[in-house]
Amino acid sequence: MTALQLCIAVLITVAPAWVWLDRLVPANLPGRGFLLTGYSTVLGVLATTLVMRLLSLLGIPFSLYSIGAAGLLLALAGWFAPAHWRSPTSAGQVQALQQPMTRLQVLLITLCLALLAARLLTLGLEVGTRPVTSWDAKQHWTKQARVFFELRSVVPYVSLQEWLDLDGQGVFTNMHPDYPVATPLLQAWTAVAIGQWHESLVNLPWLLIWMAMGLVCYSQARLAGASAALAIGATYMLLSMPLLNVHVALAGYADPLMATCYLAAVAAFYNWSQGRQAWLLILALISAAGCMLIKNEGFYWFLSLLPGILLVLAGLRRGLLILAVIALALLCVLWLMPADTVVAGHSLAGADIRYRPQSWLPIYLSFLVHDNWHFLAYLVLAALLAAPLFFRATLPLAAVIVSALLLYLTLYLFTSNAAGAVRFTSLNRVALQLMPAAGFFSLVVLLHWGQRQECD
Amino acid sequence: MSRIRQSLVFFLLLIGIAGTARAQTWSADDFSVEMGTVVHQGAGLTLEPNEQGQVLLGIPGATIALSSGQRAHFTFLGPPPPKIYLIWRRSDSEQLFQLSFATHGNSRPTFDLATVADWRGQSESLQLGFRLEPGTSLTLVDVRLAAPGIRERVAEALHSWRAFRPWAPADINVLTGTLTFNEGPYPAQVFAFFILLLLLAYLAWQRSRARWTAVATIILCAWVALDALWQWRLWQQLGVTRAKYAGLGSSQKIQVSESNKVANLAMRATRAIEGPDPRVFIASQSDREGMLAAYYMAPHNTYWHRRGDELPENRFLRPGDYILAVNPSTILYDRSDGLLRLPPGDAINVIERFANNKGLLLEVAP
């Protein structure tokens, strides 16, 4: 019965998004099914949390029926949406490198699929067996989820002092009341679907998100022109990153969902930058906007797309000039802005801006020494060096990745969050949000090298 | 091709030679017995302790170079002593230095001297000490002082990379790929280095004929090799997880988890709490215990101030509020007077709902 309820929950989550995306995505694309499944999962998850917030606003308690009804309405609306909203089926798309598969490619595909299957089984059993374990899950995310589930509603969270001042009437409190609520709502939804709070099953969405990440990576790689072997190899490398696997096994943190959402945005952006198909830009912007529903830094990851979009629309030279002007303007704004102005949950006063060189060593260790990402960071570095020298078509994507990395470095080298670097607490968790996208960038650079060789 | 083969053979020979590090070895004939009795001398030196249970061996006439890169290797026949004492005097100091190591029943123990601050310079004398139960004996075959060779270091690195330990809380933040945080070499870095060498060799060999597919294949194969260590660890972890939690229901899993004591306290508190929408203040000096209590008290409306005062000021507490104190806690509860004393000198009337070894639940009285 529980398995059936979970399947229904997945259907309610994915199906409405699938219907709408089916209208958006052109019909004749390589890996279309994988693309639809991956993006429907990611965007469906976020849309479901929005539905839950709407239901709370309307005073309707969460249940499989209320959320299911809303999902059904959304699906029907997509089904009956005007025909001219559909993307033309003859829209051009990049052709995958059309060569017959060699024996080595077949071997590599088989190997990667077997390894992925083994990883899926291991992580699936681990997350399905162990109860809520991780610190932040118990301290914040899952605790909030439990409240939402038991009350069948989103309830407001305020700071400790506000809670005391309000006598706790109609409000709850925790250490981070300003955090977005998508992640706790995801666990609450799972509990609502099975009709009970289950310490292990509420973590199953993390496995779903992990699979969605793989589908997004594979489908966008195919769209970018990668062969099936290359795409599955890259997908395997992405999904096997140790720290990502730990976050699935010890589920409850928001970072894997953010990582998947940001990858979805960046990958769609890249393919839009190559073919200029509107549906890909829409996908990129929706996915990037979705990042803001997950964690406060999602706002900055959303902004990181803008330099890339600018380079595509204005051209490289003009775009770089405009970026330089915008960067100067931003510095002026930061200089003149009142220190207590809050942007995405942070203020200048709280950030305590000054140079913190003590963060360099942890950053170096985390990326180039420790096994958090195996050796993906080396590949990203090589790609960042190669892109401007040899593969200028990848520069818009490089601009996005560099923007995100610069924001990341600013966070740990110039703000009070440096403590999270020195103590190795948040440093890698925030990096986890970016690494899949950075890995996709490395794949793209390799792909361009391959395409150049095929042309020569 | 023949040139490559020659280079490979030479490289392997070099490793083989380098693998045997220079060492100083002392066998049974080399020791002078300063305490204890020799009962047999053959393949090893069999010794019985004196009346105080002591055995002391000296290495006479030896000036030994001490360095932090050395390791002390001991070989015993049969059961080893529980502890080994290393005693030395340096040429630049009158002081006698002593260090002890536990053998943990290992008849061929090895001890790393890297972290011993005084193990440096020249030693004028070196002694080995053992403590035994009267009537027992030990057989020492040899003692070797050597810096680990490449073979040994490689073996240690592989052991560290393959070693398994169950999930630790910090694993959600950082994974080094080694057994201990600060000790390398780290597998990701080593693999990256060898891939770089391989790719440079390939690019140098092929030059303009270098194929991107070959580069991609090398990278993928190296990743699979490195990832095999990680997959192995995940399988072992799965075994531990399933041994502990498989087949249990949701509440049973909590009972066998590390947080069961706090969870049980919270469940008992939940049963004892009455009234609609009560507020519950979690008071604890421990971050972990306070956090767990707040989690297991959900969906009650809880107040828990991490790294802050255990309780807010008196003016914020109302009749009907509950205070769940989780040990260790420093709240001043006067059971005889039914008072909870708050800084700066306030006191409120409380009713004790229950108390046990883990904590207690108080209700703020009217």
Automatic annotation (TrEMBL), chain A:
The keyword Transmembrane applies. The chain crosses the membrane at residues 33-55, 62-81, 101-121, 227-246, 253-272, 278-294, 299-316, 322-351, 372-391, 397-415, 427-449. Keywords: Membrane, Transmembrane, Transmembrane helix. The keyword DNA-binding does not apply. This is Glycosyltransferase RgtA/B/C/D-like domain-containing protein. It comes from Pseudohalioglobus lutimaris. The lineage of its organism: Bacteria, Pseudomonadati, Pseudomonadota, Gammaproteobacteria, Cellvibrionales.
